[in-house]
Specification:
By secondary structure, the protein is of the alpha/beta class. Helices cover about 40% and strands about 15% of the residues. An 8-stranded parallel β-barrel has the order 1-2-3-4-5-6-7-8, surrounded by 5 helices. The chain binds 3-methyl-2-oxobutanoic acid.
Length: about 270
């Protein structure tokens, strides 16, 4: 077996081993250049199917095809050299049967060379998670608010607000952990429930709008950069990238219109 000398990439087992340890830092990523920047600071990058809404202007994640996930997955893999890259399985690509899920997940792994896939669902996905992990595919689970089920859930709402909803969500968490998932995203789960699940299961929980007590946190990169037009209430914007883009574009447009745009000859070389 040949071994590459390149920097070692973080693996799914490395993330699993962080249970109860230093918080796991994660962001979504859809393209090579921002992946390369984030790579220095995060433990894993998720090529989330949220790219359908964030990059392609769909109203939900449901229309996203597998090919689009693969294309963005390859871009992120080209940009990120150190962090684990996890690619989301889009709606319709894994729910039908474990064998169908394996067929598509294997395509994602082969064609992107990412280190793991993510799929949505708790109890109902237990058998599929076991089938995939037994066949060499690391799976990150995703429970609570699962956006691919938006038409059943009836909206982007916090899950487990009422105590009588807790048992089902706790069971989802337990079952995906027992099935072999190496970690689980807890999306929009009421804070005390997310904290309770985190202390109850042996795999890392990755919170998004859940609890600071989760083993790690993930945000949609465009949301935390201040680039998304609308963000969920829980999102803290760490930048004002949308405003910076608008300022730069309006300055450029002004320079072109006033013919003050500098374009001397022979300057097409790339800056050092
Ligand atoms: O698709 C996505 O970006 C996600 C995160 C919100 C966890 O699943």
């Amino acid at each position: 077996m040949s071994v590459h000398k390149d920097q070692k990439r973080i693996s799914a087992p490395d993330i699993a081993a962080r249970k109860g340890g230093d918080p796991i830092v994660a962001l979504t990523s859809y393209h090579a250049h921002t992946a390369a920047i984030a790579d220095k600071y995060v433990d894993f990058l998720l090529v989330g199917d949220s790219l359908g809404m964030v990059m392609h202007g769909f109203e939900t994640t449901l229309p996203v095809p597998l090919e689009l996930m693969i294309m963005h997955g390859r871009a992120v893999m080209r940009g990120a050299k150190r962090s684990l890259v996890v690619v989301d399985m889009p709606f319709g690509s894994y729910e039908e049967s474990p064998a169908h899920a394996f067929h598509n997940a294997a395509r994602v792994i082969k064609e992107t060379q990412c280190g793991a896939i993510k799929l949505e669902g708790g109890r109902r996905m237990g058998e599929t998670i076991r089938f995939l992990t037994d066949r060499g595919i690391p799976v990150m689970a995703h429970i609570g608010l699962t956006p691919q089920s938006i038409n059943v859930l009836g909206g982007f709402k916090t899950q487990g607000r009422k105590r009588d909803q807790w048992a089902e969500i706790e069971e989802d968490a337990r079952i995906v952990a027992e099935a072999g998932a190496f970690s689980v995203v807890l999306e929009a789960i009421a804070e005390p429930l997310a904290a309770k699940i985190t202390s109850a299961i042996p795999i890392p929980t990755i919170g998004i709008g859940a609890s600071a007590k989760c083993d790690g946190q993930i945000l949609v990169m465009e949301d935390m950069l201040g680039l998304s037009p609308r963000v969920p209430k829980f999102v803290r914007e760490f930048g004002e990238v949308g405003k910076a883009i608008e300022k730069a574009i309006s300055s450029y447009a002004m320079e072109v219109r006033t013919r003050s745009f500098p374009a001397p000859a022979n300057t097409y070389d790339v800056k050092d």
